């Protein structure tokens, strides 16, 4: 992994054969990043994505071993149980230009992984919401 920092922005290059979620999470831990916005593009393989079943309160998970274009990754970083937690969704494309997407559990860079992380001040964190069945964001200000 390589990165360049300008003020509170980081341009992060996750290199071939590195795991994306693992690498970005480790980066946030090492840099003390508590809250951030995350976006990215690239080419990936060995990808696991999912969709949350709101009735069963569990993820439907699917794995894809092929090389896929990472058309878009959007996500955020908040604290979960005191540690940085990366929550990301992706849109992927195969070589027939068909797309699929969902919640990203993990993926490995096949060629390049180019990510932009914008850190922001705040104390956004996650706590279990029993009604939803997931650790949801808790923000400082409420309406």
CATH architecture: 2-Layer Sandwich
The largest sheet is: 9 strands, mixed
| Poorly predicted tracts of residues | none
**SSE string, helix = H, strand = E?**
EEHEEEEEEE
- Give the helix level as a range of percent: under 10%
Q: Helical segment tally?
A: 1
Q: Would you tell me the overall average pLDDT?
A: 96
CATH class descriptor: Alpha Beta
User: Quick one: overall form?
Assistant: flat
Rg (C-alpha, Å): 15 Å
Number of strands: 9
Portion in strands: over 45%
Give me the secondary-structure category.
mainly beta
Q: How far is it from the N-terminal to the C-terminal residue, by CA?
A: 40 Å
User: What fold name goes in the CATH topology slot?
Assistant: 60s Ribosomal Protein L30, Chain: A
CATH superfamily: Hypothetical protein, similar to alpha- acetolactate decarboxylase, domain 2
Q: Domains counted in the coordinates: how many?
A: 1
